Structures are given as C-alpha cells and as structure tokens.
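lol ok so funny story. i was supposed to be doing the assay writeup but got distracted and ended up predicting the structure for this chain instead. priorities right. anyway since i did it might as well share w the group, maybe its usefull for someone
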Amino acid sequence: MDTGGTGRLPACGGRFFSASGSAFAASAVNKDAETRTLIVTEGGGKTELALAAGETVEFCPNGCFVTLPNGDLEALTGSETVEISGGVARIK
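and the output, tada:
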C-alpha cells in the first residue's frame, strides 16, 4: 500500500478494519478535534494508526500491542475500546 512516503497507513488500510468490520476487534475512538496516532504492533510488525478528529475504527482482531499517545504500551485482546480525549487514551 502506498503510504505517500510517510510510513503511515490510513486507518482503514493494512490490517485495520472500518467501523463496520469484525465484531471481535478492538476499537479506537478519537474524541479530540485533532488527529491522534496509535502505534500498533501485530505479528511482529509496527504500523502507525492515525485517527482523524471524531473518527472511530476497529483494529487488532487477533490481539496486539498498542503504544498510546503518551508512550505507554498496552496489550489488547481484541475486545477493548481505546478512547482518546484531551490527548489522553483510556482503555475500556
């Protein structure tokens, strides 16, 4: 997939699913007014997941690690929701 030289994939590219994707995937919700980025490590590969303002995506259907905007690394099983608000991510 062409990343335009940025090394970043759009939220719907690669291994990520649109909001209508798998019912067993983790989801990320960006409640901020600006784009926020999560780094997803799955199957040994890292991908930047850029979430536009107000965007919700599903990703990580088989478990993964996600680096949050503050640098914390969290393990996901695929059933969680990562909610970003005020630049802070919370796992629910």
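Confidence is low (pLDDT under 50) at residues 9-22. Strands lie at 8-10, 26-30, 36-42, 45-51, 56-59, 64-67, 73-76, 81-85, 88-91.
back to the writeup now i swear
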